Amino acid sequence: MATEIELKLQLSPKAARKLCGHPLLEGIPSQKQHLLNTYFDTPTLELHARRVAVRFRKKGWQWLCTVKSAEPASGGLAMRSEWETPATPGTFDFSHVDADDFRNFLEQRSERFEPIFTTDFHRQIWHVPYGESQIELAIDRGQIESRGLHTSICEIELELLSGKVEDIFGLTRRLQDDIDLNPAIASKAERGYKLFLDEPLSPFKARLVAIDASQTPIEAFRNIALGCLEQFQRNEPGLLAGGEPEFIHQARVALRRLRSAIKLFAPVLPPEFVAAYGQTWQTLAGALGDARNWDVFLEETLPPIAAAFPDHKDVKRLRKAAQARAKSARKSVIGLLAVREYPRLLLEFTAAIYTLGDTLPIPLDDFARQQIDGHIKKARKLATKHAELSLTERHKMRIAFKKLRYTLEFFAPLLPPKRLKPYLATLAKLQNELGLINDHVTAETLIREALKEKLAGPVHGWISGRHALLISELPEVLQNWLTQQQPRQ
Prior knowledge:
- The protein has 2 domains: about 1-200, Hypothetical Protein Pfu-838710-001 (Beta Barrel); about 225-480, CHAD domain.
- The protein is about 55% helix and about 20% strand.
- It contains 15 helices and 9 strands.
- The protein has an 8-stranded antiparallel barrel.
């Protein structure tokens, strides 16, 4: 088995032509190949469910059978397990797979394999010496086809043949100085399955990150941060396609989780990393926050107001103004994703995460316990004096509960599920209540911004009354959380 360390980047056909003449490649002989690949799976796509790819590849006159695992990628970088051997098309022999359980999984299903999609592309390859490493740079141009549907391929892959992973990032930085390159997260196989299933774009929610007690806090942070980055990148196409509300929401959640993770692990992270990236995402997060606030206002806050006052002229005027503001906020997000610094940020941040070293050796269990206890203590302190809190302090309490929830979700694999599940459920209800309260506070600000004036009369009274009702329900929800048994390792 080989472990493949690969960085994938998208580029335009024009940029691909420019890359072929780049000074870094001058004097290095290239090799050209025509690669025709057919990917197989069972009728129920069992390999896809396990994030595995099985393909036959025609490379010149030779046929190869390749098996790849498909661990999540972030910032364009993927690390995959790969097995490859010469083969006869249609004959599935997995004797070269040296992981017994995995090989058995494939062999038990091989009789039901059928072709799912093909990739047909031309590849040009250079072996580039850079730093202390030897890196294979390949430009792929062609198409993916499944059941009569097609989508184009135009990407580069940089694979570490020998040396250090940071040299892949160093080479890419040099190329980005002259060419627009965007880290890509979807493999050809993933894109092929989407084509086969004819799947529309769909929002991507946070997933449980794989960490365990044998890891150091830095190793756990690396997995968590890359999981947050993956969530954001997978929602990026939806943002660029028009910024529908749920894509905006999930992208915003991803950056909130990422920024929370940096703060959570700050005691064990290098100070220069925290200084460099602690606030880096703030501008993009702020733009997503503005867009999300207008979406919530239009989808959740305004409809009951409009139902209560269907003929009120200010309500109609407010809806029109809010729609214009929401549209403008979406454009701001798309504009930030279009600037040249954005793909550079993805690359730099991913490189920084992968090259982090352990600065403060401490068992992950101990670190997690300290952080969880600290966040619970802070939240409980605010909850027990909620009746005395000002508007600003209540907002801080809402943020404290949000950070506590993220902390528990990050460390979930270390915690007993029987305690964690009900605790998180109660915490989610509390967050929802505090979120509704905050939405009504935000609504007052948004109304003034949209209409350039304070909304007076019965509509203002309705908003104030609803806000007061939610405040009156808060003590019961807080008490339910305060009586919950805390999750412990």
